[in-house]
Amino acid sequence: MSIEAGVLYVVATPLGNLGDISSRAVEVLREVELIAAEDTRVSGRLLAHLGLSAGRMLSLHEHNEQARVPDLVLRLSRGATVALVSDAGTPLISDPGFRLVVAARAAGVRVSPVPGPSALIAALSVAGLPTDRFVFEGFLPARGAARRSRLNALAEETRTLVFYESSHRIAACVNDLAAVFGGARHGVIARELTKHFEQVADGCLDALGAWLAADTDHVRGEFVVLVAGAASAATPDTAAADKVLSVLVDALPTRQAADLAARITGAPRQALYREAQRIKAKAQ
After folding, report:
1. 121 class by beta-carbon count within 10 Å (0-12 exposed, 13-18 middle, 19+ buried)
2. Helix (H, G, I), strand (E, B), or coil: what is residue 253?
3. How many CB atoms lie within 10 A of CB 250?
4. Which of 3, 33, 117, 273 could covalently link to 258 via disulfide, CB atoms 3.0 to 4.6 Å apart?
């Protein structure tokens, strides 16, 4: 592969495990004239690991992006090759770069993706929640009142909900999710994905809040929080489905009971399986 003059390459970089970077990403980072990085210190460590020069980096973050975009677009218009990277994952997904991409496209500059890691997609792939339809909400507001207001607006959303959250707000975030959506709503917390202390915890929101409170290590790192969508108006009668399931669980293995209850009632098999597990655990 050879890179093309006057192209802005949007390059995905590893979330944590440096082995996840693609050979194409390495080649682009090696060949471009300039690397626009969210934090040159973080990206400098990646370049050092790859044996590449860090001397071509320029910082591009939320505080200086607007001021630096015109010069970068001018360089691109004159044939420069530029790679845009964030600290981890795919740029623009709750990271800087939006202004640069918009301005480059408006100026007729070609913008080319070099795809790779994304915490959003990585978490969805292992969460066990529906992925055919989902909505990404990024970071919720930092202040409690504003956060709860936003969650109230999402309370009837039927698609799987995905959020990013920081370590110092994760507990408050999950508690607010339980308060607004109900503690029985199913959720998943994906912590430190691809890193040494990676954890993926699932359960009802009340249980996830307790899991966070049980160990101080559970509130460290970077988080993706996923929540099952609200039941739609077309969803079968959950009370009837639960009644059928409670009878079947007494006589059949958990998975078989859930499968049969889904066939009888039309309720989602995955949700029935989780409920069957809960009933079995409570009975023990």
Report:
1. middle
2. coil
3. 11
4. 273
- Residue 242 parent element (H or E): helix 238-251
Query: What is the pTM for the complete model shown?
Result: 0.80
> Which residue positions in the chain have pLDDT lower than 50?
234
Q: How far apart are CA 180 and CA 149, in angstroms?
A: 9
Residues 6+ positions from 213 with CB-CB distance below 8 Å: 171
Q: What is the pLDDT of residue 265?
A: 80
Distances (CA, A) of 273 to 118, 181, 248: 29, 21, 12
Strand duo 134-139 + 82-85: pairing: unpaired
Q: What is the pLDDT of residue 237?
A: 65
Structure tokens at 258: 């859930």
Using alpha carbons, select from 170, 167, 163, 172 the residue that is nearest to residue 144: 172
Give CA–CA dist 181/152, Å, rounded. Answer: 8
Give residue 119's pLDDT.
97
Considering only CA atoms, which of 95, 168, 190 is closest in space to residue 138? 95
Q: What are the start-end ranges of the H helices in the chain?
A: 23-31, 40-50, 65-77, 98-106, 119-127, 144-154, 170-181, 205-214, 238-251, 254-265, 269-283
How far is residue 223's CA from residue 190's CA, in Å, rounded to a whole number? 6
pLDDT of residue 273: 86
Query: Can you tell me whether residue 164 is helix, strand or coil?
Result: strand
pLDDT in tens, 58-99: 999 999 999 999 999 999 999 999 999 999 999 999 999 999
Beta pairing, strands 199-204 & 186-191: antiparallel
Give 3-state DSSP helix, strand, coil % of the chain, rounded to 5. 45, 20, 35
Tokens coding 95: 């990271």
Show Cβ contacts of residue 132 under 8 Å, excluding neighbours closer than 6 positions: none
